[in-house]
Design goal:
Strand content: 15-25%
Structural class: alpha/beta
Number of helices: 17
Mean pLDDT: 98
CATH architecture of the largest domain: Alpha-Beta Barrel
Largest sheet: 9 strands, parallel
Bound molecules: guanine, zinc ion
CATH superfamily of the largest domain: Metal-dependent hydrolases
CATH topology of the largest domain: TIM Barrel
Helix content: 25-40%
Distance between the termini: 30 Å
Number of domains: 2
Number of strands: 16
Shape: globular
Length: 434
């Protein structure tokens, strides 16, 4: 294959570390006039345009953007494919919301054609919003995951997904069994895990909808294949937490249920964690598990305020999740807008560089993929986005008053959304153009 080398010139920004660990100033790298060089789907160089240009061949293809910022592709560590059709459902908190809106909507995925149609809409929506990697819940139907991975594979996207395992406390039309959930997951793992840039996540929905037998089978799968992911929900809503205590009286709280069935580990991502206690954060951190912080969902469903400072105290890996359809936007920029307010309501601050970290390198670390995505370091996948400073008249005017990259970044996260994403690149290919 001939070598394909391209360069992109613009302002360029990426995270280097968690600001909570190294301080804000050492947490990022910014090039006001930067150059990003891509070779065969990977980043081969990053630096100041003035430094790099002389070393490049005179005929190299360079795309030069004015009034734009290149950052790594955004990483959504928690989202539901089969809830695309029910974003913004009125009036309920978690448990009633699941029964009233979620389960009926997910039941439509029994139809393969429906699964394929929504997978297509869903992936386009991710890319329009600058999300290049997501950790995705399918429905209980294996075809939801097949449809998603087939569409992702065509675009060579780095994606992680799994079929929901759910064998109780849900309508009959939407349950598997401990045995069928195990066998169906296994078949999907064999077909997809490690194929191209795709990875599989064992996906018990949450403790209330799995029997002890099913949770044990989920843990068994994790022991049978290397590098599998595990995703589930935890401590999102107070009624939910009480229900888990009633269902598993022999266990020492919600996290201990998952711990008992061997579901904690370096590739385990627990969504929400709004009502986790100190000891549970410590145990999550100790096992290398991660939490997906889902602020738009936590506000929309009235679940509560995630305690990010407590997670930081325990050095717990935290990524950002939209949690569509409990969350109300596919945009991780809008998700950061709400994250800022969640911190404000707790008397805490969320710096724009911490926000950048959460949506990029933090997410990559939560997924143990920081050697491949989440930064623009040479050697990593060429998954990046171009943000347009003139996306809307207000953004354009407002950014003219910004004095430095910190202010610019904060305004992008406050006013920005899908309109702000001019282009999205995955493995060096342009996969979205506004
Ligand atoms: N807990 C169990 N299932 C779900 C779900 O689909 N969405 C959210 N937000 N929480 C859950
Ligand atoms: Zn969720």
């Amino acid at each position: 294959m001939p070598l394909t080398r391209k360069a992109y010139r613009a302002a360029i920004l990426h995270s280097l570390a968690d600001p909570a660990e190294v301080g804000v100033d050492a947490s990022y790298e910014y090039f006001e006039d930067g150059l990003l060089v891509i070779e065969n789907g990977r980043i081969s160089a990053l630096g100041h345009a003035g430094d790099l240009l002389p070393s490049l061949p005179a005929d190299i293809d360079i795309t030069h953007y004015q009034d734009a910022l290149i950052t790594p592709g955004l990483i959504d560590t928690h989202i539901h494919l089969p809830q695309t059709g029910m974003v913004g459902a009125y009036g309920e908190q978690l448990l009633d919301w699941l029964n009233t809106y979620t389960f009926p909507c997910e039941s439509q995925f029994a139809d393969k054609a429906h699964a394929e149609e929504v997978a297509d809409i869903f992936i386009k929506e991710l890319l329009r919003n600058g999300t290049t990697t997501a950790l995705v819940f399918g429905s209980v139907h294996p075809q939801s995951v097949n449809a998603f991975f087939e569409a992702a594979e065509k675009l060579d996207l780095r994606m992680i997904a799994g079929k929901v395992m759910m064998d109780r406390n849900a309508p009959d039309y939407l349950t598997d069994t401990a045995e069928s959930g195990y066998q169906q997951s296994k078949a999907l793992i064999e077909r997809w895990h490690g194929k191209g840039r795709l990875h599989y996540a064992v996906t018990p929905r949450f403790a209330p909808t799995s029997t002890p037998e099913q949770l044990a089978r989920a843990g068994q799968l994790l022991g049978e294949y290397p590098d599998l992911y595990m995703q589930t929900h935890i401590s999102e809503n107070k009624q939910e937490v009480e229900w888990v205590k009633a269902l598993f009286p022999e266990r020492n709280g919600y996290l201990d249920v998952y711990d008992h069935y061997k579901l904690l580990g370096e590739r385990s991502v627990f969504a929400h964690g709004v009502h986790l206690c100190d000891d549970e954060c410590a145990r999550l951190a100790e096992t290398g598990s991660a939490v997906a912080f889902c602020p738009t969902s936590n506000l929309f469903l009235g679940s509560g305020l995630f305690n990010l400072p407590m997670a930081e105290k325990h050095k717990l890996n935290v990524g950002l999740g939209t949690d569509v359809g409990g969350g109300t936007s596919f945009s991780l920029l809008q998700t950061l807008n709400e994250a800022y307010k969640v911190m404000q309501l707790q008397g805490a601050r969320l710096s724009p560089f911490k926000s950048l970290y959460l949506a990029t390198l933090g997410g990559a670390r939560a997924l143990r993929l920081e050697d491949k995505i989440g930064t623009l370091q040479p050697g990593t996948d060429a998954d990046f986005i171009v943000l347009d400073y003139n996306a809307t008249p207000l953004l354009s005017y407002r950014l003219k008053q910004a004095n430095n990259i910190a202010e610019t970044l904060f305004v992008l996260m406050t006013l920005g959304d899908d309109r702000t994403v001019l282009q999205t690149y995955a493995a060096g290919n342009r996969v979205h153009q506004r």
